[in-house]
Amino acid sequence: MTEPNTGRQRLYIQEVAPRDGFQNEKQFIETQDKIAFINQLSGSGFAKIEATSFTSPKAIPALRDAEIVMHEIQRSPDVVYTVLVPNVRGAQRALECKVDEINLVMSVSETHNRANLRMTREQSFEQLSDVVSAVRGSRVAVNVSLSTVFGCPMEGDINAFEVFELVGRFAALGVDGVTLCDTTGMAYPTQVEKIGREVRRLFPGLTTTMHFHNTRGMALANTLAAIEAGIDRFDASLGGLGGCPYAPGASGNVCTEDLVHMLELMGYDTGVDLPGILGVSATLPGLVGHDIPSQILKAGPRLTLHPAPDFGG
Amino acid sequence: MTEPNTGRQRLYIQEVAPRDGFQNEKQFIETQDKIAFINQLSGSGFAKIEATSFTSPKAIPALRDAEIVMHEIQRSPDVVYTVLVPNVRGAQRALECKVDEINLVMSVSETHNRANLRMTREQSFEQLSDVVSAVRGSRVAVNVSLSTVFGCPMEGDINAFEVFELVGRFAALGVDGVTLCDTTGMAYPTQVEKIGREVRRLFPGLTTTMHFHNTRGMALANTLAAIEAGIDRFDASLGGLGGCPYAPGASGNVCTEDLVHMLELMGYDTGVDLPGILGVSATLPGLVGHDIPSQILKAGPRLTLHPAPDFGG
């Protein structure tokens, strides 16, 4: 991947709407619509796109077309195409589709892991260890997304040492990257900076991503704190797709265009084509059948000007 | 005003919903409801409450009950009660009501000033100078709120030197404080930090407040940047009341409970009783007749816990 040298600090934006967003939609998104959507994102400057999930079609019918999607999208050589994989069977399906990366997920919180994955953390870790073994030898990268890093909606605060220990166990397995997920919007800036800095210090060899939710309005503030801690990779979801199951009406995933808009104004080079993704985001309400929590789609970028009223001379 | 020494950095939150919020509501808020609302806020730890506006009842019928409100609220000695005043007539009315502070407003942008106030900036400055003269000799403080400091929705970028020059002209008149207003949510963190730092450096004798809008999702991020610049006073509106006239559906004023929630988590002492104001905010949809953009009201504070599902043994 060649990058123009702009003299600005590079940040990497990873688009998760095709998986994390569409998975949460009640209305099935037609396969060809998914493919067209991902193709548009592929030309928009994202470092990574989470394209789909190789879970059981019964468990997640919204993404039952994972193979077709992965085979039919037009891939850009500049984009890492990652997919969610829950187990060895999913990994095999993903490998057959020649994905660039598989993304594993489990929770730091025992209660949330059992609620979300119907397994204890130890069972999850064993299952994901098997996936890492199965993928070893392929050229496919492995990332682990850890849920509830900044708090659990059922347990409350999470001991940061449990986060570091779990990251360490995956690092020992040889995974390439870790994503620290603020699953229900409990992260706050000083906490993000502390945990981000410590994960970078303890595991300098891991590619670290932050995955923020805007449930309590803090996603952009948390992003600033993460950048202070040296983090340069961020998950985001176009239109803010992907809600919060615990708070009807509250925001979920941080909105890609809101994130990119702020970072570019601050002088960071996100690589993302903001006008381009705003055009794609504008198609989302039609695709998903409801309003989306994008602020920039509603208000326009900062320098969207409005006509002055007639002052009457 | 006595303050407990908590060892935490003190920040001052100034509630503007009774003026900036209610003024923008189509439905008239009953006078007794306004009074009860302000009384609840008075016991909630705000440093300042913008209670009403002494404008012409014809121009702003929503606040035509300014005198009654100011006379009937139960004032707390810990709160500065400020009111918006457009001219000498308004100042006289405000002084008769024994307000603690009058708040003047004009725009840094010529086009916005003409659109909003139907005057040139020079005409506004003259008119406000007369107000400052009229108030001189009383014990009432004077604050000036400058609109469009961080950008104008009609002109675009604003030259920061025009901001500093206008602040300087008011400082020369002897005003006590200045509020830098991000009228339509165009401020971004690096800009906020630069302008905030410079205003503090140039005018150390002025009490400086930041007034952010969340129109483009950046209000909390901008707050962090302002704190970096040494700013410790923030306007906010309960429930996020007070919309953006240029972007239907977009957020307006930063939401008080979202701001306080973040700052308290970060270890700042805002003085504000978060559970208390959440109770008041919960009454707002009934009062104004529509949903409000508060995130914390929807999602609950960070440690609002949810029951774990039954794992079935």
Task: Give the gist of this structure.
Two copies of one chain form a homodimer. Chain A has 313 residues and is of the alpha/beta class.
Layout of strands and helices, then pairs:
The structure is a homodimer of 313-residue chains.
Chain A (H helix, E strand, L loop, with lengths): L11 E4 L1 H5 L9 H12 L5 E6 L12 H7 L7 E5 L3 H9 L4 E7 L2 H8 L3 H15 L5 E7 L12 H14 L3 E5 L7 H14 L4 E5 L7 H10 L4 E4 L19 H10 L8 H8 L2 H5 L6 H5 L14
Parallel strand pairs in A: 1-2, 1-8, 2-3, 3-4, 4-5, 5-6, 6-7, 7-8
Helix pairs in contact in A: 2-3, 4-6, 7-8, 8-9
InterPro entries (chains A, B): Aldolase_TIM (IPR013785), HMGL (IPR043594), PYR_CT (IPR000891)
Family (chains A, B): Belongs to the HMG-CoA lyase family.
GO molecular function (chains A, B): hydroxymethylglutaryl-CoA lyase activity; metal ion binding
